[in-house]
Here is the input.
Amino acid sequence: MKYTAIEPTLFLENRKKLAASLPDGSMAVLVSNDIMPSNADGSMGFKQNSDLFYLTGVDQEETTLILFPSASNPAHREILFLRETNEHIAVWEGAKLSKEEAFQRTGVSTVKWNQDFKNLFRALMAEAETVYLNRNEHIRAAAEVQTREDRFMLKCKEEYPLHEYRRLAPLLYRQRSLKHPIEIELMRQACAITESGFRRLLNTVRPGIWEYEIEAELCHEFIRLRSNGFAYSPIIASGASACVLHYTENNRQCMEGDALLLDIGADYANYASDLTRVIPVSGRFSPRQRQVYDAVLRVQRCAMGLLKPGMTFAKYNAEVGIAMQEELLQLGLISAAEVKAQTPENPAYKKYFMHGTSHFLGIDVHDVGYFHEPMQAGMVFTVEPGIYIPEEGIGIRLENDVLITSTGIDDLMANIPIEAEELQDIMLQGK
Ligand code: GLY
Ligand code: MN
Ligand code: MN
Here is the structure.
């Protein structure tokens, strides 16, 4: 890991909170992700299961956490199982956690090797009535592969068919969507690294630069600052490519007169940041680009003004929709007749603003949380309106990450320049 060690308090308190919501006689089991194979003897980079990381801080494969708060033996109320490390692993892969290191990192005092799992789990199951297991319940998840937690769930139900099984996801969705102060600091750090990367670009981008050269600049800056790298595939989209919402080719040359959309966020300590800015390749926006830019900025500010505890997503999305509709009318992109003919399911603004305004942010970039429940202080959201006009080769999105506070928001990206004038001034300095 490149990041500075996280205080174990975070993981201790996260487990304590989850344990408090488990009824007596219940045991929760969380397992790590697989190392995904590539071809021949290769593998893809390891990415820890978000929930397991949230509860332990362990960044290692073949890890299992058991929480059994009402276990008769106090030593069995929290148990961490790890892949046993040895000299061979130390030489070839680097040392894995020892039991003492695992305790220091996680605060879990009972650490066992995986070979002890089967027998101990059998003993624990004899005492448990209910087993809470985890599955990916993200409403947009579309995985074809079976995960390690899927496999564990199937095996467990096969071997112990008479236990009662319950979903862990709703407990973790509600808990993870309210950020701990240590998590907020980690997310601020991710945003600060993203800011450094973005500022580096303001001094680098010029006509003729290739999108992949920009990606390389960001990689350099992020990793130099102890980031694991990008929190998601970066979108570096010049000209009309900015209208392709998931453009990740990043292989076009930036031309004089292009606006360049940068959807770039650093990961820090497994926490995501998610920034979008649009800058003029030549240092100055065209009048039309500027018109659209300022319209998106006004919608973003309107959206930020709506966010507070108690706000529902239904009301928020409806009000942002009205603000966007007004801007699109002013820009001449939709007509009063189209607005009159629109339906709630198919509003006229969707033609130019076809994605959501906000999503939860945290360990996952599209983090877990319930859109059907009101907002609460401690949640972190993106605010990312956009206007995409393929026929004019203009795509503008502006995205900041904000923390909901008791009275409104704390903009975690408030220091990242966003006013068109400020961006132009920085870019034109020294040119
Ligand atoms: N970068 C992904 C998103 O903005 O949702
Ligand atoms: Mn986003
Ligand atoms: Mn984004």
